[in-house]
Amino acid sequence: MATTSDIRNGLCIKYNNDIYKIVEFLHVKPGKGPAFVRTKLKSVTSGKVVDNTFPAGRKIDEVRVETHKFQFLYPEGDTFHFMNTQDYNQIALQKETIDAPDLLKEGEIVTIIINSEDEMPLSVDMPQSVILEVTHTEPGVKGNTATNATKPATVETGARINVPLFINEGDKIKIETAKGTYQERVKE
Length: 188
Prior knowledge:
- The protein has strands at 2-3, 12-15, 18-28, 36-43, 49-55, 59-62, 65-76, 79-84, 90-94, 109-115, 121-125, 129-137, 150-155, 160-164, 172-176, 181-186.
- The chain is an all-beta fold.
- A hairpin with a 2-residue loop joins strand 7 (65-76) and strand 8 (79-84).
């Protein structure tokens, strides 16, 4: 049993007959009243995100997990196939367990969190950012740059990202996976 002082990002807990992963948390100590921990929990079964407040010192049911590096092989409908980089075993996961499936490129290395008790995969952690090639975008029009103007672009995985006007087809761009936003153009 853990307490609210053990809460950290990525911790998996049992709550309301489901397993949740802590996405965000904030310890709050108001001037009046007892301290509490405000959390954002993501269900590893349904992907639903809920906000919850725990009183300070409350016992929480921690789930023992292992993390393994897996390589993304290929998608097949809503099923995504991965291979363990250590022992080459393959697993198939549903699209809902992946945070940003539209940014997943074949060969990408991800971290998969596995429940130690029943060996079931709980969630897939993407790298902080991915580098993808722009396959389609409209040409930028000069003179439209009074503000930070953006235009839609399609990358090699099929995802649509808003990019600055100077990005052209064939450019490689760095995308933040947590928000799905453009970070920078990558020079080869």
